[in-house]
Amino acid sequence: MKLLPYSLSIFFFLFMFIGSSQTNYEESKVPAFAIPDPLLTFSGYTINSVKKWEKVRRPELLRFFENDIYGKIPKNLKIDSYTILEQDDHALNGKAKRKQVELTFKNNNKTLSYTILLYLPKNKVKAPIFLGYNFYGNHTITEDKAVLISSAWANNNKSFGIENNTLTEASRGKRTHRWAVEKILDAGYGLATIYYGEVDPDKNDFSDGIHSLLYQQGQNQPKPAEWGSIAAWSWGMARALDYFEKDADIDASKVIAFGHSRLGKTSLWAGATDKRFAGVISNNSGCGGAALSKRKFGETIAVINDRFPHWFCDNFNQYGDNEEALPVDQHQLLALIAPRPLYIASAEEDQWADPRGEFLSSHYATQVYHLYGKKGIETKEMPMLNDPIHNTVSYHIRTGKHDVTDYDWENYIKWANAFVK
Ligand code: GTR
């Protein structure tokens, strides 16, 4: 997050260039390492009960992930007000109730608002819902003309018609394939989505987004142990859940945090930090998400911190090319979600996200689920392609690339029916 002196930046650039050309995609080159034991405290004490897990081990792990990986939230900030911007009880050809709800936050003489797009199944009193961010605006997930276009900063993207960091009509419906809205509604669930750039624009700049509302006097960027963007986006999901608790159409005890890729890292962290999320889905979340960092397969800590210096807290930099020094790994992040249902999904062609590392992580988290008498990923053998394992902890690897598909959603719905609903 800090600016490096010029000469150092050149050195760093060269190093990264050489380093990234060495991305490892070979299983035989994965280093040998011990899997940090979720049930052994940092001081060497063995945990053998739910009580000790919840009193001793879970808090110390959570603290570690907060201080050294995602960053702490400096202070609690509640919703100042919310406004139903728009509502239609006969949306999507009469299939759904649509609501667009704006949440507003105020602090330090600053204001931040973001808008939740909700599709709820008709004739259902309190619906369980999937909540997940989208990458390019709520209007990209559907052809529905009534969905409002965000005025927040967006990454330019030619194929989406996004220029000058501004979202327009040109991108309406561009991401419908990632959101199986009809399947979700038909199964009796609602869908809530938010444009992540409204909570914190995805760029290495901490003058904007939610961070700026919570600085102390004179502060203009997070401290080394304070929140990066992933923690900020997770915070936004938790505040959406605060709103759901007030919305009579939603069953706030059945909100499933969903996310793809960087937003899958986000849904995992949201589930770890807020126990109210009834279930968590990580779709192709990879490095800093479900994948084990110590495997150094595909994207690594050094590479992710270089490309996205704002995602994690500054303290995370000390583990770049120094994974051995990490006393934890990402399966322990997954374990923080226990005993709540958790779904980890990979894609065959998404080697950058290390599917095997994602799988192993779900396996090694399972021992904490066992404390609660729940089943997870009991085997160390990866399943065949398109052959999901469904338990309280679920896993699948599907054919195809880094993406969200109908196949993914069909499985999330099956798992939610069995373990969340
Ligand atoms: C990639 C990044 C991944 C993943 C992905 C995404 O460039 O290296 O960690 O987060 O972006 O979010 O689409």
Automatic annotation (TrEMBL):
Listed SUPFAM superfamilies: alpha/beta-Hydrolases
GO molecular function: carboxylic ester hydrolase activity
Keywords, in A-Z order: Hydrolase, Serine esterase, Signal
Alphabetized Pfam families for the sequence: GCE_fung
Domain 4-O-methyl-glucuronoyl methylesterase-like: start-end pairs: 225-373
Domain of life: Bacteria
The name this protein goes by in its record: 4-O-methyl-glucuronoyl methylesterase-like domain-containing protein
Species in which this protein is naturally found: Arenibacter troitsensis
